[in-house]
Amino acid sequence: MRTITTETNVYSIDELRDDYPEAYEKALEKHADINVDHEWYEYSLEYHAEQWEEKYGICFDWKGVCFDLDRAFWISFDQIWLHDHKAFYRALEMSHGEKLAMSRGDLEFCFHTAHYGQSTSIDAKDWRPDTAPDLTVDVDQWFTEICQKLLYSLRNEHEGYMTEEAIHETLKINEYEFTLDGEIF
Question: Counting runs of H as helices and runs of E as strands, what totals does the chain give?
Fold first, then answer.
């Protein structure tokens, strides 16, 4: 039997950046998805679920949310429901800029999102009785807008994780060491 021992020079991400710029670029390229190759969005969705309940009176199960931040730019909720009518009224009134003429029992909506290929259907179904006054607010449009705000927030967070600074910081904090080909040793 024969044993062969080899030595490998390894470098911190800072050493690569300062002394070996080509190797640094390789390391960043090879590990560009280090911050998003897992469920990076979980805390953000949990936060937004809490905010929606407080601000809009709408609850959703953040674990059942699916979305696409690229060209299709859609979101779908597995479970979403109206929880707090008063908060919902306030949110509609704030978006509309005037008091709505409704009584407490006038507003019953079921929210639904569905994704089909490249399009998303977002509906706020009005289950109010026919005798309820007409709404001066387009609830579908309002719901679409808050969904888009959520998507833009997720997109901004994702883009932040993909910056050179964020990737560098993750590689540094985890004290990874690299070979000159950009691989983690």
Answer: 6, 8
Q: Is residue 181 predicted with pLDDT exceeding 80?
A: yes
Answer whether 27's CB lies under 8 Å from 180's CB.
no
With contact defined as beta carbons under 8 Å apart, do 143 and 120 qualify? no
pLDDT digit string (tens) for 123-157?
A: 555 555 566 656 666 777 888 889 889 999 999 99
Q: What is the pTM of this model?
A: 0.78
CA distance 2 to 83: 71
Say what the alpha-carbon torsion angle 116, 54, 90, 60 is, to the nearest 10 degrees: 20
Where is 123: in which H helix or E strand?
Answer: strand 119-126
**CA-to-CA distance for 107 and 27, rounded, in angstroms?**
55
